[in-house]
Design a protein that fits this description.
Elements: H1 2-6, H2 10-37, H3 44-58, H4 66-75, H5 81-105, H6 116-139, H7 143-166, H8 175-187, H9 197-206, H10 213-236, H11 250-267
Length: 268
């Protein structure tokens, strides 16, 4: 494994890490689009900063979702505990569903060696799910969220592909499926920051592609190092408290119509 890491292409590793960082920035914007639907309003920069801070805690706390609790606590002043939790959980679940749909849609060309009686039914269900997602997103005013989700997946998949390519591992169209398996493994409450579970996920996902065990573990270590670098950015990013605007005085609201009425009368 160490020999494989020593031979990794530094330009591709750098590209992969940069794309993973960009992917987390895009994820922060995507989370904001969902939060706005729940009345949780802040600037894009604020949501991105909180998301990156959450990435840092994800890399040091148990499971790969420890930073979600940090996000809930940060966004809570903008609404209630219920809406804050809902925004983070919805972001996490919809992101996983979108990843699963992408992996399923590309399954026929992924080269995983699965029989057609499994590959095509999964792909057809995924195509139907993608269509339903577009319809629901349009009905609920979430097309911008859908767009950011698409951007994230392209960026994230390319980042993982670049890391794999740096080790001469040909992922190709199997990248979404590999990312899905690894993401689920990292979310399990069996490790700190996904360490160990991440490498096991790559071993499981890459075995059907004929990738050697040491190469799969090396990719897991490299992916973990890239995520740690992204988390380090989140550790130093400037995070301010959410801006909570005070509710207007009810008496001033009652008086407002009369003042408007007088003003209009004078102007006429």
């Amino acid at each position: 494994m160490l020999d494989r890491l020593d031979s990794a292409s530094l330009p591709l590793v750098t590209l992969g890490a940069a794309l993973l960082l960009l992917g987390q920035i895009v994820s922060g914007q995507r989370w904001r689009e969902l939060s706005l639907q729940l009345g949780l309003d802040e600037t894009p920069r604020w949501f991105i900063a909180i998301y990156l801070r959450g990435c840092f805690y994800n890399s040091v706390l148990p499971t790969g979702i420890g930073g979600d609790a940090v996000r809930v606590g940060a966004v809570r002043p903008l609404g209630t505990w219920k809406t804050a939790t809902r925004s983070v959980v919805t972001d996490r679940v919809t992101g996983l569903v979108a990843l699963a749909l992408a992996a399923g849609a590309l399954l026929p060309v992924a080269g995983l060696g699965l029989p057609p009686e499994i590959t095509w039914p999964v792909a057809i269900v995924s195509y139907a799910g993608l269509g339903a997602t577009v319809v629901v997103a349009a009905q609920r005013g979430l097309l911008s969220w859908l767009g950011w989700t698409l951007v994230f997946e392209v960026v994230w998949f390319t980042g993982v592909w670049a890391l794999a390519r740096s080790l001469s591992i040909p992922l190709g169209w199997a990248t979404p499926a590999v990312v899905l398996v690894v993401g689920i493994a990292m979310a399990l409450p069996i490790s700190f920051g996904g360490h160990g579970a991440r490498e096991a996920g790559f071993l499981l996902a890459l075995a059907p592609l004929g990738v050697a065990a040491d190469a799969a573990v090396a990719l897991g270590v490299l992916f973990g190092a890239a995520l740690a670098a992204v988390g380090l950015v989140g550790a130093f990013v400037r995070v301010r408290p959410a801006r909570v605007y005070p509710m207007p005085d009810p008496q001033s609201l009652d008086a407002a119509p009369s003042r408007v009425g007088v003003s209009v009368g004078v102007q006429s």
